C-alpha cells in the first residue's frame, strides 16, 4: 500500500516527513514554473516595448533630419566627436600643438587650436584628460608641456 492511499493517522513519522518533503518539492516546482511563465511574459512585453520605442525614435530622427537638424546617436560608433574624417583626433592635435614649444599657456594652446580649425569649447577637459593619460604635464597652473 502506498503512502498516498493510507490515512495520515496510519503513517509513521518517517512516512509523514517524506510525504511533507515531497509536497514541499512539488509546491516549489509549481511556484518556479509560475515565476518562469511570468518572467517570460514580461520579457516578451519588454521586447515589444523596445521595438516600438526604436521605431518611434527612428521616425523622430527622420523628421529632425528632414528639417535640417543633426541627430546624435548615444552609444553608436559613428557619433564620436573626437575624430575628424581622415584626420587625427583633437587630443592628438593638441599634443602636437603643445609639443611645438617647451611650455604653453592655455590661452596660447586655444589660439593655436582655433587656427588649426579645432573646436575649443572643451579644451580644458581635453587637456586634463591628456594630463591624466600622461601625454602632457603641467609644471604650474594653466601651463602645459609635452610629456
Radius of gyration: 33 Å
In which order are the strands of the major sheet placed? 1-3-2
List unreliable stretches of 5+ residues: 75-80, 82-86
User: In terms of structural class, how would the helical and strand content be classed?
Assistant: mainly alpha
Secondary-structure element order, N to C: HHEHHEE
What's the mean pLDDT score? 85
What is the overall number of helices? 4
Shape: elongated
What does this protein look like?
The protein has about 150 residues and is mainly alpha-helical. It is built from four helices and three strands. The N and C termini lie far apart (about 90 Å). About 5% of the residues have low confidence.
Sequence-ordered SSE layout with sheet pairings:
Layout: H1 13-66, H2 90-99, E1 104-105, H3 106-115, H4 123-133, E2 136-140, E3 143-146
Antiparallel strand pairs: 1-3, 2-3
List keywords for this structure.
mainly alpha; single chain; 7% strand; 3-stranded antiparallel sheet; 4 helices; 147 residues
Briefly, what is this?
The chain is mainly α and 147 residues long. The protein has helices at 13-66, 90-99, 106-115, 123-133; strands spanning 104-105, 136-140, 143-146.
Amino acid at each position: 500500500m502506498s503512502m498516498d492511499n493510507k490515512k495520515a493517522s496510519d503513517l509513521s513519522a518517517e512516512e509523514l516527513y517524506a510525504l511533507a518533503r515531497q509536497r514541499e518539492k512539488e509546491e516549489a516546482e509549481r511556484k518556479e514554473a509560475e515565476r518562469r511563465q511570468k518572467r517570460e511574459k514580461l520579457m516578451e512585453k519588454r521586447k515589444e516595448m523596445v521595438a516600438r520605442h526604436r521605431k518611434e525614435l527612428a521616425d523622430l530622427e527622420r523628421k529632425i533630419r528632414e528639417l535640417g537638424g543633426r541627430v546624435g546617436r548615444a552609444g553608436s560608433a559613428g557619433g564620436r566627436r573626437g575624430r575628424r574624417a581622415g584626420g587625427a583626433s583633437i587630443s592628438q592635435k593638441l599634443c602636437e600643438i603643445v609639443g611645438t614649444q617647451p611650455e604653453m599657456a592655455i590661452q596660447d594652446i586655444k589660439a593655436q587650436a582655433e587656427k588649426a580649425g579645432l573646436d575649443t569649447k572643451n579644451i580644458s577637459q581635453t587637456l586634463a584628460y591628456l594630463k591624466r593619460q600622461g601625454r602632457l604635464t603641467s609644471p604650474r597652473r594653466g601651463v602645459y608641456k609635452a610629456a
